[in-house]
Amino acid sequence: MKRASLVIGPESSGTRLWTRVLRACGCAGDGGHEQRWDTRPLETNLIVWRHSMPHGAEWFCVADWIQPLLTKGWRCAVYVKVRDWYANACSQVHRSHAKSLNEAQMRIQRAYESIFMGLAETSVPFAIVSYELVCRA
Description:
Blueprint: E1 3-10, H1 15-24, E2 46-53, H2 62-71, E3 75-82, H3 85-94, H4 101-122, E4 126-130, H5 131-136
Parallel strand pairs: 1-2, 1-3, 3-4
Helix pairs in contact: 2-4, 3-4
C-alpha cells in the first residue's frame, strides 16, 4: 500500500522539524526547504512530503496538492503544524517571511484558513501537531 504523510503549516511553524522526525521513522522525503516530490515522481511506497503555507512564496490550494495522490491510490494522512502564535510570528520576522509582527500574524491566519478549507474539500484524516510538544519530547 502506498502511504503519504503530508506535513503542512504556516512558515516557521515547525514543518521541517516534523518532516525530519517522520524521515527518522522510515519515510522517504526531504527535511529541508527543497522537496523532491515537487518535481520528481514518487519513487517509494512510504513518503513524507512537506509544504509550508505559502510554499515557495506561492499560496497554493491544499486540495489541489492532495487530490492527485488520492486519485493515484495513495493513502494520505496530513499533519498540520501549530506553534505558539507569538513565537511563530517572531520567527517569521526573523527569517524575513514577514516585515512585522502584524504582517506575520496576518500571514499565519491566512495560512490556517487555506489549510483547513483545503482539508475540508478532501476529507483526508489529519492530526494537529504542536511545535512546543514535539520540542519537549
